Amino acid sequence: MKLLALLLVASFCGTAGTAENVLVVVNTTSALSRSIGEYYARRRSIPLAQICRIQTKEQETIARTVYEKEIEPAVGRCLTQSKLTEKILYIVLTQGVPLRISGTDGQAGEAASVDSELTLLYPKLKGTKFPVSGAITNPFFGKTTVEFRHPDVPLYLVTRLAAFDFNGVKGMIDRSLLAKNTGKFVLDGNDAGGDGNEWLKDAAIRLPTARTVFDDGKAVLSGLGDVIGYASWGSNDGNHSRRRPGFRWLPGAIVTEYVSTDGRTFVRPPASWTVSKKWDKPSEWYLGSPQSLTADAIEDGATGASGHVWEPYLKFTPRPDILLPAYYSGRNLAESYYLAIVGLSWQNIVIGDPLCSLGKPRD
């Protein structure tokens, strides 16, 4: 296992992007968005020309017409008018920029996250057109030996700086600057079998044995310390009953879970609310779902996380067997997540500073 992990790490020798490759999108109608954008730009030394100011509704869910009139073209103008189309690799959205686009559901549905929709802006600026319905194949998926650059990979990698409040986002940004390649990768499967558990098993094989905690039984892992990476079924695990796993996260720690609606909101729920599996009991839901929330992981001390604004279906959730080895190898947060996501213009969001990196492994 150790040899395999080292071979996988050695297979990528490219260089990560820098602040020169980041566009920060701020919604001027949101005080929170402005504060986050200013703080992040200062901490990462983002050039002023790469702060994109748009004006749109300060609400989490919008109609596609709003996205098409007020968000996508505004971000496109920021890129083209400042001649940044090729230079920018990563787009960072700030909380206060709308989160999700309403529409029909199902695998051929038109609903999507704003974040995932914006990944296709690069090819759209080159004249490519895409259908609104269903997911678009991610050309970067699984290309672990490929350097992310334009025009070789025709995408923008879009992440979001969001939490329950400004202090949560501030803490996440600060932790990203302290990330080191140390700590445990925790992989929590269940006893149900299937693709999700196989991906967790493969992740355990591809990560260094001495730094990996893996369980594929009924136990739900909790209370562990020095966690740098975590993948699980979250509240979809039939044995899971906790809202939070109670881990002690290291700076730079990232999270992914096979949960359909964990990115549905960044509005803090009541302290009394907890997760459940009772889809037939709306009194136990929070904003349309009984499932766990991505924002909880950030509040607890994680530095990055994935989420889904609506039902993505398992095959479109981030693959932990790609995500965690890529991150361990030194890929930055944005590249690690998007290497592991099969479809774009879909339900996925990635929370965190795209430049956050553990650096090359020393073990």
Structure description:
With 363 residues, the chain is α/β, with parallel strands linked by helices. It has two domains: 15-161, no CATH class; 164-332, no CATH class. It is 27% helix and 17% strand. The protein contains ten helices and 15 strands. The protein has helices at residues 2-10, 31-44, 64-81, 114-118, 121-125, 166-176, 195-206, 294-300, 320-329, 333-339; strands at residues 22-27, 51-54, 61-62, 90-94, 100-101, 112-113, 136-137, 157-161, 184-188, 212-215, 227-232, 249-257, 304-308, 343-344, 348-351. Strands 10-9-11-12-13-15 form a six-stranded mixed beta sheet, with helices on both faces. A four-stranded parallel beta sheet has the order 2-1-4-8, sandwiched between helices. Strand 1 (22-27), helix 2 and strand 2 form a beta-alpha-beta unit. The longest helix is centred in the first third of the chain and has 18 residues, at 64-81. The chain is globular and about 55 Å long. The model is unreliable at 1-11 (pLDDT under 50).
